[in-house]
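Give me the fold.
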Amino acid sequence: MGGRKKFNITGLCIPKKHYMVDMDAKLEQIIEQYIENEEYFTVNRARQYGKTTLLELLYQRLKKDYIILDISFEGKEDYFRTLDTLADGLCYEFQKVLKRSGYPELARIFEDPGNDKLPIQCLGERITILCGQAKKKVILMVDEVDKAADHQIFLTFLGLLRDKYMMYQRGREETFSSVILAGVHDIKNLKVKIRPEGSGRERQDRVEHTNYNSPWNISADFVVDLGFSPQEIEAMLWQYENDCHTGMDISKMSELLYTYTEGYPFLVSCLCKHMDETPYPWTSEGLQSAVKFLLGRPNTLFDDIIKNLERYQGFKNMVEGILLRGADVSYIASNPDIARGEMYGILKNENGHVKIANPIFESYIYEYFVSLHNITNLVMSKYSDKSIYIKDGKLDIETVLQRFSAFMKEEYRNEDSGFIEQQGRLLFLSFLRPIINGTGHYAVEVETRCNTRMDLVVFYGAQKFIIEIKIWRGEKYEEDGYEQLAGYLRAQNAQRGYLLSFCDNKKSPREGRLLQFKGCEIYEVVVAYRDFAAV
């Protein structure tokens, strides 16, 4: 095992050291569509989406035919204090890269000349000299460009590149044949980030100018899909299986990994790494354990999700509506909350509707909303004694449902239907959370969520419970609920399911019961949340 590759989730992935998906097709697409056409573009993708690794692979592919100035703005915030410090910092970076790459004579172009009264203009002249003297085309790659994107001074540098590019297109000046900026934000949308200096009307004028006149409007849209497809995951698992001989069903495992992650590179690698480094088998059950482990530990990606939910109230309200109330939000690219969610990798466009990007994000955000709800203290103090629900290490889900119904009648007996329809699901998840915490977890099934129903899968050790949560609309709708749950149970190869219905007392629902329906057992609990006799 000594020299075996590993799954990597920190920093740069290196093909000789790490299990990776095959990026050759994506690299060829970038080269043919962007580099050979001399495009300027931004690789703008969410955090930990493989941008740095992509730049390195692209560098290795291009370095024979191009001179590559590959720099990063990570830890370089001081470069953006003044135009002088920016020009000096970039000259230093370019000189260092050229020396490292074996071009010492070209590196001398960026040596400190002394007193430059126009530092950015002088930097532009040096770029012209470099590209004129070089015997190859020169490409500029800048990683971690977000570190600079909220500095007004950075606009000046982008403006320089834009002006030189326009002259280059006319055949009047030498400059970089391509510029590649990598970061979370699309630099064309600087209105999201820029914090101009100044105050009062001057500052407002600058804000408006920045918002709608980005100097990076010359860049091409970057449309290459950097997510992992099931086929790419499968090819990576074949590499792993050839080394480790686990006996896994590779095709099934790749599909499951994709189902949980929608191909988000960091999430795929996290799950694979955990299964590789723990005794969990490469099976559906083992993967569920890895998902639970991932959801139960902090990481910078999850921290960013919560930070962005807290920072933007409109965005938070939209996500809460989609998850907790089944809100159907039409995809409108110009909507700032939708654009923000896409940029951060939290939302996606699915057939013209806004959805959460993947089930793992859904589960994590659900936990976040549940943790904010004040039901937890009530449950912990009165209803969440685990000895009531767990016997011999097994969860008694029927007792959970019954006790939840009693809790609702006692604590929420006079609430109206609007409150329950909006909060009922969250209340149940809040009730369930402290009971299964530490041993179990739950997942919301994306394909079954709508305004009136939601399927929840609860895992506790080796146990698996399928629960449909819905608003009771009367006998006819109840029959439809049985049909839907039975169909889902058959699809999951499960015999028994559970139906939790929220019902206004005035509709006189029947009591909970166990019934047989089309070959399935359905255990039903009705939550009657308004006690009219007490009003």
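Residues 230-297 form one domain.
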